[in-house]
């Protein structure tokens, strides 16, 4: 790939490095001494909060990054001296792997709990043994909800370097995995560069490359071409693959009366192949052989929902649920081969029909981690589909979805740029976190409480540092109050520089602590004092704008 | 107000007029001949869709707008020859008023149904007889979910003209009501200008002006000052007023151990007054007198939740629900006086605690329309709180909230500008519409289906026109495919200019229609034909970016 290497200066200008403002990289040790990365948010009151970190060495000031040589291989040697087995096989054998130990520390849970979840198939650890650069993570409904960001060049648009930077940029803001959906030329090389530089698992849809191999004509596709493509991608280190093996010939007619027909790329390709040959989907008929290939590398299946609804009108219809039954059958076959499995979900679904998708998937697919695209809860807001789908993502994650595939503001309209990627990731981190709170994840609320305390105590800088996007939060605040003293002032631009509502509560609390009174007694005393203080000082209350 | 009138040219440059792109104003006649405005979206296939319209004459090309003389008084004479009674009194008396008839046509429901909902107190029609410029609208859980936008100048910031334009701008994008939260100087004059030019009901929080009257010291507030302020605002034409009469002296101690104390402006002012005098809230002790004043103008109560939670940690706590019980008591008193009532709700609430807020409000307040601020479902995303709260707004609206108070990206950080207002309104229209779909409002899905059909048939221009924000949707599309022919091309920038998945379904359907075959037969025939066609043409399928 020497011919495509940018020179050092180009590279320096292309890849975003350095810590997120107000944070620094720290490492927690596991029982056996593995170093697990966290992002430490330093607060002005001397406290700190360590949060889950997906950004890899790019945010580590002590690390040197060179996209040409690739990332340090954190998992190098982890599998030495142990036979090639999948995480599922080890978990079933009662063995806690280093990957399980690593993710246990990341999630703040016990290694044995992780092993049990993986053994049951309720969780997966996508970690191809040929992708040692990736930091292990776990996907399952009893862990933190994860977010995937799609990247990938298309024939006409972005360069290899741009795609690597998109991956770095997406993981900087919290993407837990990325999918390389590249099409067109340089597809192998783009994927190679992304894999060697990605600290997170990388997913692909092999049918796209297979289609390129046969010149873009679905009718020319064959099991042999597809198989060779999958082996190539396994060797490169792809961690999970979307396979549309559930699009059966007899299901295609069920889409004929839909408002928006078939909207999945992979689904449409396989439907086209079935129509062209009037034969059954070769991914379905060769599924066991596919399992044997993925098992050898511990590549995780992401069973694609090729017949997912593309509009509110088509949600939860026969075509969608017929395919889901087949995905359940394929899940069982994959597990018989010790291959880890996720199942993909919709799409476009109105709020009242969302929960049924999770319930059916859990029943039919043995609680395999559900991985959904949104869903969009209305069709009427193109240019805002990160929001129409962010609502659905939060609702479906609360119901049990394990990973959310982000949607950007450009969905349905065009190709996302750098800002769209950030907006999509942040929106989906919000949806995932809202669901973590609703599901009662043990440590999820720590960050909300830390930020709310900072807000109550007028520690503006800490509010920015604790937020998902410190740069934008600070910029919005500075539009009204740029001066540095404002960062510690006991007011906000909505209140003006005077006594405010929160202050009342603070005074009452301090009084209670001084006096060692029970709160209510303290309040009563406090209220009497306030009565005098008000009379004395003519204290004022100023008004925040929003009520 | 002559002294503050901008000249015509200033005015022309300040107020946004003209139809939304691809739409024009039309009027539907009611049984008795009232003209009800709708926005007609013209489609390129000759069809059209008439949608609910909040924008008033500003989007009517045939109307002349002069903010100095104010809007045409659409309700002038509606009450002539009928005694002054509230909509609630008329509804209870079995009378269908013109306001009820008007909103029935707006909502596509029967006038009698509207009367029943108003009579039961489940719905309100905020329509001060002194605000004849407003086009009647209804707020209730059995009608379309409504959205309020807060505007209002503060001491240092925007001018009267800017606030009028903010109102015009917010209603252009779909705000069903606006609240004027002005503080500081020119508060009367700002409100006067907004009222005379507002086609939607205007709400206020009278305690803000009352506080100005006493020089900003809550301790100096009194029932007499407040009463005179309320009468002044009733005379001006304010349609609904937020009254924090539920903040009782004994509830203030319950906020002492909260993470964020009291975060409502009105709540903090009344708490400060109670603390200063160690006496009961004068809004509570004089509530019946207040009812008599509001009844004379048919001003609707919006009972404020002064003790709402300001953080996830404080959600659904004793202070919040204690106040809600009192709001239930006040609701009963207001209804005894034939005064219409809404009840305000939180705030900051995690997803799993949202439904309980609606259930308790309906039980305690006799199903009075619930009017909530968000709620925000997490505290960790300042700069994105339109999204953290848009998620909560959709969930709480699905559960039965009748009106949503928008939150802009500047929440907690600064004062919203024009772009923030639009983003806030669009985000909340999405949340409201997602809930309308989930609640099965009879006509809600028409627009989704029309847009999805346009998408499936590659009518790009119609997709833009049917979207909540046609300008931004078109701009995003044009970034990749600016040329006009692209607006009718059978592809998008994600697919490339070739045969795509949706086309397969189209061909199958057309075949079925031509042949008059049952669909499945047609598919089978179609699949055979496709098989030949593929072989013949070597047809290709191109790949959209998102899968």
From TrEMBL, chains A, B:
Coiled-coil parts of chain: none
GO biological process, any: thiamine diphosphate biosynthetic process
GO CC aspect terms: cytosol
Sequence similarity: Belongs to the ThiC family.
Biased composition range(s): Polar residues: 8-20
Pathway: Cofactor biosynthesis; thiamine diphosphate biosynthesis
HAMAP family tied to this protein: ThiC (MF_00089)
EC number: 4.1.99.17
Chain residues that bind [4Fe-4S] cluster: 492, 495, 500
Highest taxon of source: Bacteria
Catalytic activity: 5-amino-1-(5-phospho-beta-D-ribosyl)imidazole + S-adenosyl-L-methionine = 4-amino-2-methyl-5-(phosphooxymethyl)pyrimidine + CO + 5'-deoxyadenosine + formate + L-methionine + 3 H(+)
Signal sequence residues: none
Main function: Catalyzes the synthesis of the hydroxymethylpyrimidine phosphate (HMP-P) moiety of thiamine from aminoimidazole ribotide (AIR) in a radical S-adenosyl-L-methionine (SAM)-dependent reaction.
Binding locations of substrate: 150, 179, 208, 244, 264-266, 305-308, 344, 371
Chain ranges of the ThiC-associated domain: 20-83
UniProt-recorded Gene Ontology molecular function terms: 4 iron, 4 sulfur cluster binding; phosphomethylpyrimidine synthase activity; zinc ion binding
The name this protein goes by in its record: Phosphomethylpyrimidine synthase
Binding site for Zn(2+): 348, 412
Enzyme kind, highest EC tier: lyase
Cofactor section: [4Fe-4S] cluster
UniProtKB keywords: 4Fe-4S, Iron, Iron-sulfur, Lyase, Metal-binding, S-adenosyl-L-methionine, Thiamine biosynthesis, Zinc
Organism in which the protein naturally occurs: Saccharopolyspora hordei
């Amino acid at each position: 790939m020497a011919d495509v290497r940018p020179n050092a200066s180009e590279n320096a200008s292309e890849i975003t490095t350095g810590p997120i403002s107000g944070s620094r990289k720290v490492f927690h040790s596991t029982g056996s001494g593995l170093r697990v990365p966290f992002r430490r948010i330093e607060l002005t009151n001397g406290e700190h909060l360590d949060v889950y970190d997906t950004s890899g060495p790019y945010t580590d000031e002590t690390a040197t990054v060179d996209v040409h040589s690739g990332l340090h291989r954190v998992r190098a040697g982890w599998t030495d001296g142990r036979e090639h087995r999948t995480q599922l096989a080890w978990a079933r054998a009662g063995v806690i792997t280093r990957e399980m130990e690593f993710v246990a520390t990341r999630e703040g849970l016990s290694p044995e709990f992780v092993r049990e979840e993986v053994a049951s198939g309720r969780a997966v650890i996508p970690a191809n043994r040929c992708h040692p650069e990736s930091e292990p993570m776990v996907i399952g409904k009893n862990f933190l909800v994860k977010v995937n960001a799609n990247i990938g060049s298309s024939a006409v648009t972005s360069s290899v370097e741009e795609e690597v930077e998109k991956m770095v940029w997406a993981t900087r803001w919290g993407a837990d995995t990325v999918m390389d959906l590249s099409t067109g030329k340089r597809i192998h090389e783009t994927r190679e560069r992304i894999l060697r530089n990605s600290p997170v698992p990388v997913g692909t849809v092999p049918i796209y490359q297979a289609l390129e191999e046969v010149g873009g004509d679905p009718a020319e596709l064959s099991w042999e071409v597809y198989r060779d493509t999958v082996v190539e991608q396994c060797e490169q280190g792809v961690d999970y693959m979307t396979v549309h093996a559930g699009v059966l010939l007899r299901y295609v007619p069920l889409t004929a009366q839909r408002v928006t027909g078939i909207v999945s790329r992979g689904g449409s390709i396989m439907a086209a192949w079935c129509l062209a040959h009037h034969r059954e989907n070769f991914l379905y008929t060769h599924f066991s052989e596919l399992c044997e290939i993925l098992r050898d590398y511990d590549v995780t299946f992401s069973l694609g929902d090729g017949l997912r609804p593309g509009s509110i009108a088509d949600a939860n219809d026969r075509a969608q649920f017929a395919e889901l039954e087949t995905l359940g059958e394929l899940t069982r076959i994959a597990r018989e081969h010790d291959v880890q499995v996720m199942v993909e979900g919709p799409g476009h679904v109105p709020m009242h029909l969302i929960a049924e998708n999770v319930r059916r998937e859990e029943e039919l697919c043995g609680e395999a981690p559900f991985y959904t695209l949104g869903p969009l809860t209305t069709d009427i807001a193109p240019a805002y589909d990160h929001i129409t789908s962010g609502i659905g993502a939060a609702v479906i994650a609360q119901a049990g979805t394990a990973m959310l595939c982000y949607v950007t503001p450009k969905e349905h309209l065009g190709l996302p740029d750098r800002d769209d990627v950030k907006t999509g990731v942040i929106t989906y981190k919000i949806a995932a976190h809202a669901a973590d709170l609703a599901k009662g994840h043990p440590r999820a609320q720590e960050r909300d409480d830390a930020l709310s305390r900072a807000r109550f105590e007028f520690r503006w800088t800490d509010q920015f540092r604790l937020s998902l996007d410190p740069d934008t939060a600070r910029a919005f605040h500075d539009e009204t109050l740029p001066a540095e003293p404002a960062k510690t002032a006991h007011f906000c631009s909505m209140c003006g520089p005077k006594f405010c509502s929160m202050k009342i509560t603070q005074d009452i609390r301090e009084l209670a602590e001084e006096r060692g009174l029970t709160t209510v007694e303290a309040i009563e005393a406090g209220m009497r004092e306030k009565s005098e203080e008000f009379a004395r000082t003519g204290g004022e209350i100023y008004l925040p704008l929003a009520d």
